[in-house]
Every structure is written in structure tokens, then in C-alpha cells.
């Protein structure tokens, strides 16, 4: 076990974990930030997506130790003052069906809009391609991203 210094959602925290412990488990179990979901555990579905220094990463495949000294943002910290434009658009477009994958979807989309505030539909589909939704709400997700790019 090691003490790992992290900055999560702008807050300095200390985690006690093996250096190989996935960031996902520190976020969920030690910090009680349960918006980040465990999906496949292999980095393939995107349900566990968070930002590390602004880049969308699969927290199930990112060790907590490798995130030390970096800025980590979870779905709970995405909106600086309330809901992020994407979260508002998700609600307006009724994007989630079951909702399980949606925090990862939003975090992936936030990375896109940070890099490209006005993406085309093709760019949205390409960027979101690695995040899976069992319910198939992809058209609503794309509309929500388009809405956020216009309103955000």
C-alpha cells in the first residue's frame, strides 16, 4: 500500500492503495464519487471515462499512481458552477435510456467539445465511437452533443 496524492475535481485528496490499483476503484470506493461506472473492466466500453489533465481516459485501465500530480475530473466535477452544457443538453434531448453508460459518454463528449467546440455530426460519431451504449441511444447522444455545441 502507498499513499497517493491526487487532485480530483479541484480538491487535493490522499488515497491509500496499491500502486497498480485502477483509478476507478479509488474514485468510487475511497472518494465515494459513484458517477463513474464500472462497465467491462477492460477499457473497451467507456463507462468509466474520466479526464486526466483534460484527456478522456478509461479509469479502469489507468492506475491511481499514474494519475498522481495530474488534474482528474469526474462527472461530478465537470460543471464548474452547476450543470455543464452537455449535462443540460443530455436532459433536454432525453439522451439516457438506462443511464448506466451516460457519465462516460458525457466525459468523452466533453473532451471533444474542449478540442473542437463546433464538431460536425461525422466528427461526433467518430469521437464517440469507442463508448458503448447497450440501449442504443446513439442518435440522442449525438443530438445532445450538437445541442451543447450550439448552446454551450
Folded structure, characterized:
This protein has 152 residues and is an alpha+beta fold. 34% of the residues lie in helices and 16% in strands. The protein is built from 5 helices and 5 strands, in the order E-E-H-E-E-E-H-H-H-H. A 5-stranded mixed β-sheet has the order 2-1-5-3-4, with helices on both faces. Strand 3 and strand 4 (55-58) form a beta hairpin. The longest helix is centred in the last third of the chain and has 14 residues, at 102-115. The relative contact order is 0.16.
Question: What keywords describe this structure?
Answer:
single chain; 152 residues; alpha+beta; five-stranded mixed beta sheet; 5 strands; 16% strand; globular
Q: Residue ranges: pLDDT <50 for 5 or more in a row? A: none
Described by the principal axes of the CA atoms, the overall outline is globular
For the residues shown, what is the average pLDDT? 96
* Helix count from the secondary structure assignment: 5
Output the radius of gyration: 15 Å
Percentage of residues assigned to helices: 25-40%
Please specify the SSE layout and strand pairing.
Elements: E1 2-8, E2 11-17, H1 23-30, E3 49-52, E4 55-58, E5 71-73, H2 85-92, H3 102-115, H4 121-128, H5 138-151
Parallel strand pairs: 1-5
Antiparallel strand pairs: 1-2, 3-4, 3-5
Summarize the structure.
This protein has 152 residues and is of the alpha+beta class. It has helices at residues 23-30, 85-92, 102-115, 121-128, 138-151; strands at residues 2-8, 11-17, 49-52, 55-58, 71-73.
Amino acid at each position: 500500500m502507498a499513499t497517493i496524492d491526487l487532485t480530483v475535481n479541484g480538491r487535493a485528496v490522499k488515497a491509500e492503495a496499491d500502486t497498480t490499483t485502477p483509478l476507478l476503484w479509488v474514485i468510487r470506493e475511497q472518494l465515494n464519487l459513484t458517477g463513474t461506472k464500472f462497465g467491462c473492466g477492460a477499457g473497451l466500453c467507456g463507462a468509466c471515462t474520466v479526464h486526466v489533465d483534460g484527456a478522456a481516459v478509461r479509469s479502469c485501465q489507468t492506475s491511481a499512481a499514474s494519475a498522481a500530480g495530474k488534474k482528474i475530473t469526474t462527472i461530478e466535477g465537470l460543471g464548474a458552477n452547476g450543470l455543464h452544457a452537455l449535462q443540460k443538453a443530455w436532459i433536454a434531448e432525453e439522451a439516457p435510456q438506462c443511464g448506466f453508460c451516460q457519465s462516460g459518454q458525457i466525459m468523452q463528449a466533453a473532451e471533444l467539445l474542449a478540442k473542437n467546440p463546433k464538431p460536425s455530426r461525422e466528427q461526433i460519431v467518430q469521437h464517440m465511437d469507442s463508448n458503448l451504449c447497450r440501449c442504443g441511444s446513439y442518435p440522442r447522444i449525438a443530438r445532445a452533443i450538437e445541442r451543447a455545441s450550439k448552446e454551450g
